[in-house]
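Crash report, auto-generated. Payload:
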Amino acid sequence: MEALLQPIINGVLLGGLYAVIALGMSIIFGIVKLVNLAHGDLMILSSYLSLVLVSWLGVSPLVSLFMIVPVMFFVGFFVQGVLLNRVLGKEMEPPLLVAFGLSVILQNILLLVFTPDARSLMSNLAVKTIPLGETLTLPVLSLVNFFGGFIVILAVYLLFRNTYLGRAIRAASDDEMSTRLMGVNTKRIYAHAMGIAMMTAAVAGVLVGMTFTFYPHTGPQFLIISFGVIIIGGLGSMKGCLAGGLILALAQTLGAHFIGTGYQLLFGYGVLLVVLGIRPQGLFGKI
Amino acid sequence: MKLALEVSGLDVYYKDFHALWDVSMEVRQGEIISIIGANGAGKSTLFKTISGILVPTRGTIHLFGERIEGLPPHVTVPKGMTLVPEGRRIFPRLTVYENLIMGSYTPRSRSKREDAMGQIYNLFPILKARRNQMGNTLSGGEQQMLAIGRALMSDPKIVLCDEISLGLAPLVIKSIYRRLGQINQYGITIVLVEQDVKRSLKAASRVYVMLEGKMVLTGEPFSLSEEEIKKAYFGI
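Recovered output after restart:
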């Protein structure tokens, strides 16, 4: 029993991290109807920004969040306001291409500045564990990931529910034209939404950087995870993000437990295929 | 009386299609104006142009003396003009309360939000009863009331109503028109676009008739004969 409990615990905790990785992409998908192919790279950009602060100021990666989260808001505001808004509303392809171009540019800038070496955000949390039973342990870092993810999702949920900005974001995702008639500059709302999405990506980037090693080209790997989470959970749904993250992560850890670590990813995407087959709109999808 | 809205010499194109031809119209403060016309006569196009969703090729639009043609809604709504769109277009996954809140988005109306909401709940008590329901759970008539209420939340001086009786039961239409009269008595100017000619003539202080993108007739309802209106409406 305990042998099975460990992968379940790991899966649940990893699920919280997956949810926050995918959250920003899901928000933009739901509101701007845009597939942000640069989401993973923008997330890894935050990991590198944290790396810079950690090595310059000697602060812990979690403390660096206080600077990176606001910075990433402005990065998102700029990306949407200056780049993506220009090509929005005509056809599907132009925004997709702009996002893809941004992804390539970001990867190469990171490569140029930081070299292709493997990096990670060092933190003393990484080695701490809480023993639960004879063989069962709770890694503290995973716990931080899970609650970090949970807090971010809760914060975004409350923001969307209780503020003018949040309501305007939801209204624009319901009916853009009608939202404009209320006197809302929807392009500006989109820029704010991307800013918020990048704030969540900043948290995801730092947590990922503390948990895994990262390279300038790691972004697409997390883009794929985001896609998985969003497809399982349903486009643009925050509940779906959490559920999708948990399901994908559990499928991976349980798959690794029963079949072997090598098949971990395969198992995750097997579940994804099953969900796509049975419920193509995702578990909490709107359509 | 002062002009609330003045449209003069408006030409509007959809790509190559010439939709409005030299359209002019005057709306005085406190009036209820009806614009009638058959399907495709250009009524909704005119509204879309006034509210800044379409940009005219020629002509001017003045709102309380200020030029506004081509200006987007987030500039014109704070100046006191709002549109109740055709098909109601309430936000389906926002609650009734949140739909109303969205109506008071502009900074000018935010401070008066609670007062405005109280007034709207008085006008349409059903909205208060349903305030925590999602927009898409309302009936057609309730949705129309919500769309009107939402527009009033912006504290407008002039409201443009596009086809507010479309698809509603006669009894519901009657009750909504009675409310429009009340709204007008608060000093809010109303411009209606309608296909329901009889209803429009009854409610309006003046009528404009459109045909194939042109203004073809205008006057006070009682001064126009049925024959004249029919001729202008159908172009025969």
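Post-recovery validation: The first helix of chain B runs from residue 43 to 50.
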